[in-house]
TrEMBL record:
One Gene Ontology term from the biological process aspect of the record: cyclic nucleotide metabolic process
Molecular functions per Gene Ontology: 2',3'-cyclic-nucleotide 3'-phosphodiesterase activity
Pfam families: CPDase
Domain of life: Eukaryota
Name assigned to this protein: Cyclic phosphodiesterase
Coiled-coil regions, chain positions: none
């Protein structure tokens, strides 16, 4: 059983699922990890590693997901993720996030992942989530204003000011992200794959 302050989830309720992430490294990764933890504590959501999901909800056996990742990594070239703005979404996993530019490399990686895994998905909206939570629109708007001031505002401290406008993606990570675990407690890195 996975448990947290957000509740207990019987392992039988979790459906095996994987996600492909492009993760920021170094100082930016540490800063975003800290911001995510701060917002999770402030708003009662889970903490999770900073990432841009390239493809999610991959419901295949682990060995097959890993074999396809090797194929994908050989096909995708290194690329850059560029942040656009802090904004809000309409559901739990897209509550408040950094919108990512639909640049050629970002969109090509997503298209390649869908092709290699044989998946059809809604139109891709690249983003880096900062908060997973169920908040009403008014509360989300307040969080967006708060986060924007922390990351981009003139009055933000040097510890929260987001200096970098994005990051280079040199590898993709396969994560175990079972459907049904909003606590993220069961999520774990399976393997990382360098890009060509």
């Amino acid at each position: 059983m996975a448990s947290s302050s957000l509740g207990t989830i019987p392992s039988s309720a979790l459906k095996e699922s994987y996600s492909i992430w492009a993760m920021p490294r170094g100082k930016l990764g540490d800063q975003l990890r800290g911001e995510i933890a701060h917002l999770a504590q402030r708003h009662g959501g889970p903490s999770f590693p900073p990432h841009v999901t390239v493809l999610g909800d991959i419901e295949r056996p682990r060995e097959e997901a890993q074999a396809l990742m090797k194929e994908l990594a050989a096909e995708v070239k290194k690329y850059r993720i560029n942040f656009v703005d802090v904004t809000r979404g309409t559901f739990f996993y897209q509550c408040v996030f950094l919108l990512v530019a639909k640049d050629e490399g970002t969109m090509a990686a997503a298209a390649a992942a869908r092709s290699v895994y044989g998946m059809t998905t809604p139109p891709y909206m690249p983003h880096l989530s900062l908060l997973y939570a169920d908040l009403d629109d008014a509360e989300k708007a307040k969080v967006v204003e708060y986060v924007t001031a922390r990351l981009y505002g003139e009055s933000s401290g040097y510890d929260t000011l987001l200096v970098e406008t994005g990051y280079e993606v040199g590898s993709l990570a396969l994560w175990y992200t079972p459907t049904g675990d909003e606590t993220t407690k069961s999520w774990c890195l399976v393997e990382e794959y360098p890009l060509s």
